[in-house]
Amino acid sequence: MLSGAAGLRFQLLGPLGGWHGEQPLDLGRRQQQAFLAMLLAHPGRVLTAAALGGGVFEEDSPPNRPRSVLATHAYRLRRELRKYAAAHLLVTVDGGYRFDVPAQAVDVDAFDFLVARADEALGADEALGAGERPRARDLLAQALALYQGEPLAGLPGRHAADLRRYLAERRLAALETKLGLDVELGDSPSCLVDLDRAVFAHPFRERFRALLMLQFHRSGRPAEARAVHAEARRFYHGEGLDCAELDTMLARIRRADPVQGSASRPEQGGAADSAGTPVPRQLPAAVVDFTGRQEVVAELTARLGQPDPAAVVILAVNGLGGVGKTTLALHLAHAVRDRFPDGQLHLDLRGAHAEPLDPAEALATLLTALGVAGSAIPVDPIERAALYRTTVSGRRLLLLLDNAADAAQVLPLLPGARSCAVLVTSRRWLSHLPGAHHVHLDAMARAEALDLLAAIAGRARIKAEPEAAAAIATACGLLPLAVRVAGSRLAADPAQSLSQLAASLADEETRLAELACRHTAVEPVLALSYDRLDAAQARALRLLSLPDTPELPLAAAGALLVPRQGLDETRELLETLVDLNLLQSPAADRYGFHDLVKVFARQRGGRQDSPGSVTAAFARLLDFCLASARNAERTAHVNRARRNRIEATTTAQGLAFHTIDEANTWMLTQSALHHAVIHRACQDPGLPLAEAADLLDTMGSVLFGRAYATTVAELAGHLAAAALTRGERTAEALARTVRAGMLWHTSRYARAGAELGRALALCEGRELRGLRARVLQILGWTARMLREHEEAISVLTEAAAVFRELGDDEAEGLTLGELAVNQAECGRFSQARATATRGAELTGRQLSSSEALGRFYLAKVLHLDGDLALALAEAEHARRRLRCFGLTDYHVAAGGLIALVHLAAGRERAALQAAEETLPLARQASGKLEGHLLRTLGEACARLQRTDRARACLAEALWRFRQLNLLAEAAEVERTLHALA
Predict the structure, then answer these.
(1) How many Cα atoms sit within 13 Å of 103 on the Cβ side?
(2) What is the largest distance, in Å, between two alpha-carbon atoms of the chain?
(3) Which residues pair with 346 in a beta bridge?
(4) Torsion on CA atoms 469, 473, 474, 477, rounded to nearest 10
(5) Considering 64, 449, 598, 967, which has the largest number of Cβ atoms within 10 A of its Cβ?
(6) Which residues pair with 404 in a beta bridge?
(7) Sign of CA dihedral 151, 153, 158, 160
(8) How far is 440 from 345, CA to CA, in rounded Å?
């Protein structure tokens, strides 16, 4: 860190700290530190009392007089600063505060300065080839060394949490760049160790795994690179995520880098040696600001330079209109034209137009360019093609055929001489072109798009508004044509800010209209492809664009498009759109869009499709999603029988699932689709909210882990509001019940209780008895977490009676298990054991997740009763079964219980091992479970005299409990920490 005024320096990149010279400052208690941290994050700026209060105080428990508390914090900080003649730096301005410490006295500024210098060095390296990459790496290493632990560790308040996330992300971004340079430069002996450590610490950070794969590959260990990829796919797919970057890296490794070949000498003799023979130079001018595509250019250049090829070199580049195929082809053709001394031919085949160029006419044009008189050109197309092949024989020619309609149009134009090379561009895959090497051109990388925007609009403007530039590139879908149009608009109007253009492009309704400048626009380019579709293809493109989801599986697409059509017919239709590059297929039977194509298709749908037909399509999709989700739930044996559900009628059979993993994977990977369909039902009065609520309920029965519960809770809130507006009480009651369950799983118990109260008031009538019992069941869970055990016993007893009346053994057994835990917490151990045993009997009548949960409840009661041997046996059985059913939260809870049983039995090392094994999963699953495990871990360490680690674990547990407002648990941990001190 750099010294500042009055010799002060402050640390935000770790636990908050301050020094005058080498003398540490007394910064007070944590809330006062949070106040100081907020001022340090904005040096020299006035922060209002309202802003400071919102950032420093906890949302759920603000002080009665926040301004007075802030004034107290300021007074105490000034008192400390006065010791060093620096009290004047903390200024009160209109009820707010400003800290006039220079920015360079704060370590964050030092970090930003070093990273900016590293970026400049990399930029200079890119522009001048000055070998600045080692210096950039050293600067990044210095920046990373400034981090002394978790930023603002343990500080309360929303601002500290937000800044902590931001600074952690900045560190990871710098670490990614630094490790990437380590791999690239190849001179770091610790590179593999550093990458492995980064992957372990940040398992969801795909870039670290990609770099680890690349380093293994470059170290001559390809098997280990593939093993990293295989392990990552299992991990990500288990979390419902894809790993596109790792798949791309694996493809790169398998391809390896092409060997650069030298240009072969032209063949001697033939027409090229004849005096007076014209040498065509037909290439149009290349684009001067061509940007990016280095890997593709290197690959194609190498292929065009193959010495003595066995046949004509044919390179077929395909991609969406506007993706830069022609620009790439021209850039490449100019780069290699010296390798083709007998000329370069260029022909626009007009393949995207209504009437593509006839091959016979194209042959006549080529023959004329090669010096054949018009009177000598045969009328018969076959004879014309034969003369063309004879004419080019012996010549070393480059033929650029732009915008081909299909392979049939190109075949007659292929030369027979292997000394020639053909470069073809097309909006579709030319899969029937024999011997061709195919290259699919996709949207640009983000850095390339920003570089192109800077080349056109001016680098100073991009540097001045980097966030707006990134927003423009995103709105353009990283499509080169769209980026070029946006850049041209900026260049034509120097007074327009990037923020203004970004705001104009943010509206999907007007985005395509905004992407136009003079005679260049994106929409007409896309329209050329759309206008050549038949009616079925055009309708499919429009309807598939409607769901707000990145991609659709084949079966869902079939439901959306045509009811009762076979999947083979649907696949064939969609693959024609993939072939035309209007749809993308990232994996087998999965289909998605480029962003701008989706916008275009939606706008065409708005003009061509009636609202009724759109509603009908979504109704089919909702029906399919619900039927499939029910099948998945039944296969996964999720612990909620359908007798307690509000079950809407479906007509679709849905997908069948044969294993628990298969069913759970479907529910995880299709959560975005389900979200989109439910959200649409909330907006469209023509769609049945009962089905949407049922689908939401099924989602909630599977997706209650930390990563998904918040999303499901928010969606349930939207659905409940829509149902209230439409007067659909049953759908509203179910939505509020689901929302309460998700809030419970994320430890927001007070809010869960409020939702349950509203749901309970809606559960009137015998047909809603099952739902009422579910509401009571969740109320019991909530009461237990709030330690209101008598209240929990009351509502759970009522719920169990209703379930018994309905004949639902599983639900009754689970309710009895929860009831038994509350009875044990009240000291009624004999009654609790009997209740838990009865619950386990009811849930154990068939092999299901409910059977495992029944045994888990019994283990908890046995532990509370002190029967530790039997408790351990039941908990270990439950954990094995819960792992099989993919119930991560309960699996973690069972692991925590095992650690507690070991600790109670005096087996501290076993407790330590059990807690450490479970903690990584708990960090991903539940803050509450993480806190309990940390507490157990801390207590085990304390008994083993590992005092420092004990304090650290307990302090983290305390912070977690306070964050979740679990005050009783926090108080218990505080007492343990006090005893340690």
Answers:
(1) 10
(2) 111
(3) 400
(4) 170
(5) 449
(6) 426
(7) negative
(8) 23
Give the per-residue pLDDT at 175. Answer: 92
Q: What is the DSSP string of 523-573?
A: HHHHHHHHTTS-HHHHHHHHHHTSSSSSEEEHHHHHHHH-TT--HHHHHHH
Instruction: Please answer whether residues 394 and 272 qualify as being in contact, where contact means their C-beta atoms are separated by less than 8 angstroms.
Output: yes
Residue with tokens 């699932």: 657
Same domain, 694 and 736: yes
Residue 639: its pLDDT value, please?
A: 45
Confirm if 832 and 823 have CB atoms less than 8 A apart.
yes
How many beta carbons lie within 10 A of that of residue 554, not counting itself? 18
Helix (H) or strand (E) holding 399: strand 398-404
What number of residues does the chain have? 981
Partners of residue 47 on adjacent β-strands = 97
Give the residue from 343, 475, 476 showing the smallest Cα distance to 400.
Answer: 343
> Which secondary structure element, helix H or strand E, spans residue 143, and what is its range?
helix 133-145
Number of domains in the chain: 4
Does one domain contain both 490 and 616?
A: no
Decide: residue 965, CB within 10 A, 0-12 exposed, 13-18 middle, 19+ buried: middle
Whose structure tokens read 């791999």? 183
Residues 494 and 592 in one domain: no
- Among the candidates 440, 455, 472, a domain finishes at 440
Here the tokens at position 519 are 């005679």
For residue 294, give the nearest of 259, 253, 332 by alpha carbon.
332
Q: Are residues 608 and 723 in the same domain?
A: yes
* Nearest C-alpha neighbor of 531 from the set 316, 323, 310, 356: 356
Ranges of the chain with pLDDT below 50: 1-4, 127-130, 257-276, 638-644
Boundaries of domain holding 669: 535-762
3-state helix, strand, coil in the chain (%, to 5): 65, 5, 30
Cβ distance 342 to 452 under 8 Å? no
E strand residue ranges, 574-660: 584-587, 590-592
Report yes or no: 633 and 701 within 8 Å, Cβ to Cβ.
yes
- Please state, in angstroms and rounded to a whole number, the distance separating the CA atoms of residues 328 and 310: 25
330 with 456, same domain: the answer is no
Task: Report how far residue 426's alpha carbon sits from residue 319's, in angstroms, rounded to the nearest whole number.
Answer: 7
Distance of alpha carbon 474 from its chain centroid, rounded? 15
Domain final residue, candidates 699, 727, 762 = 762
* Per-residue 3-state assignment (H helix, E strand, C coil) for 691-755: HHHHHHHHHHHHCCCHHHHHHHHHHHHHHHHHHHHHCCHHHHHHHHHHHHHHHHHCCCHHHHHHH
Residues 583 and 497 in one domain: no
pLDDT digits (tens, 9 = 90+) for 252-310: 777 653 322 322 333 333 333 333 467 888 888 877 778 888 888 888 888 887 756 66
Asked if residue 74 is part of any domain, the answer here is yes
How many whole angstroms separate alpha carbon 144 and alpha carbon 548?
39
Contacts of residue 229, defined as CB under 8 A and 6 or more positions apart, other chains included, come to 209, 213, 246, 247, 249, 250
pTM: 0.62
Residue 440, H or E segment? strand 437-441
Q: Which long-range contacts (CB under 8 A, 24 or more apart) does 150-153 make?
A: 150/14, 150/15, 151/12, 151/13, 151/14, 152/12, 152/15, 152/16, 152/34, 152/37, 153/14, 153/15
Q: 291 and 481 in contact (C-beta within 8 Å)?
A: no
**DSSP 8-class letter at 281:** B
Instruction: Give CA–CA dist 716/688, Å, rounded.
Output: 15
User: Is position 820 within any domain?
Assistant: no
Cα dist from 211 to 200, 233, 475, 795, whole Å = 13, 15, 29, 54
Where do we find the tokens 């288990």? 238
pLDDT of residue 270: 34
